[in-house]
């Protein structure tokens, strides 16, 4: 069972961390929290008049398969500083009941579970981990929905996606391009990823995509994804995680946001139902004011209706904690806050759950 202080295993590291850490998904947000003894209870309160989000679009539970995988890595790499700093709760199983409890505490009605099955190298284990997430959604009486996870470059990816289409509780698929070792500078990998997106379009299976693969991620990398991969989605709903980055705010994230902004304004293919989540962009109560204003400027230029709240629970705290941390610092008007709080992903609007 998780706690509000559990650390996520989904985010990606900044420059200087090992390739292995990147592939396992150990994150800079969790490292900052652990290293600094970060107490999210000290985060700002929600602005006066603001309410809880309708939906948390970015949650992670963790079943036996991923838990065993991460615990094995913890044993193998026990001397790495990054692992020593992480809250050990990140390596424990978390269930749908835990997710519902976190939503209840925050006053949030619904949540989306993003399966971490993309970490696994066995087709059977991928199926088991996805089933763990889908069962949690299916038995939640409509409060939880699941996006199954796949590594799009593994041979079983298409079959796994096809298996879950139309099943109760499933609203989409999660692609974590960093964990899957995607290189946007490889034409072969770009072509293979585009084929997966075309298949998802044919299946009517919306996508949540974590695009950033490296510390030196560039606007050109984001444009490659937009022009050669997302263009294949046409009108398929797409949710871009972490505002196109991997958590936190830096020049690479803003460069990616600029690329999405220009593509949306130009009406490029694949942009009609593209939305962007705000998961763990703000990681401390003392976030840089200039960066926050820069983020809000992009949000306003792109359109506030395209931005989704998501906590990446349990990255730096509970869903309610992250709502307060983010909205307590972003320089949004009350009307803009309400827009972001009440936005719902396209793939949930079509869901009967």
Q: Residue-averaged pLDDT, rounded?
A: 85
The portion of residues assigned to helices is: 40-55%
Q: Number of DSSP helices?
A: 14
* Structural class determined from secondary elements: alpha/beta
- Counted beta strands: 8
- Count the domains: 1
User: What is the CATH domain class?
Assistant: Alpha Beta
Low-confidence stretches: 1-43
Radius of gyration equals 18 Å
Characterization of this structure:
The protein is α/β, with parallel strands linked by helices. It has one domain (19-349): TIM Barrel (Alpha-Beta Barrel), CATH 3.20.20.140. Helix content is 42%, strand content 10%. It has helices at 19-24, 28-36, 64-76, 81-85, 96-106, 123-138, 157-164, 187-203, 219-229, 251-265, 289-302, 319-327, 334-342, 346-349; strands at residues 55-59, 110-114, 144-150, 170-176, 207-210, 238-240, 274-277, 307-308. Strands 1-2-3-4-5-6-7-8 form an 8-stranded parallel beta sheet. Helix 10 links the parallel strand 6 and strand 7.
Quick overview of this protein structure:
Helices cover 42% and strands 10% of the residues. It is α/β, with parallel strands linked by helices.
Secondary structure topology:
Elements: H1 19-24, H2 28-36, E1 55-59, H3 64-76, H4 81-85, H5 96-106, E2 110-114, H6 123-138, E3 144-150, H7 157-164, E4 170-176, H8 187-203, E5 207-210, H9 219-229, E6 238-240, H10 251-265, E7 274-277, H11 289-302, E8 307-308, H12 319-327, H13 334-342, H14 346-349
Parallel strand pairs: 1-2, 2-3, 3-4, 4-5, 5-6, 6-7, 7-8
Helix pairs in contact: 7-8, 8-9, 9-10, 10-11
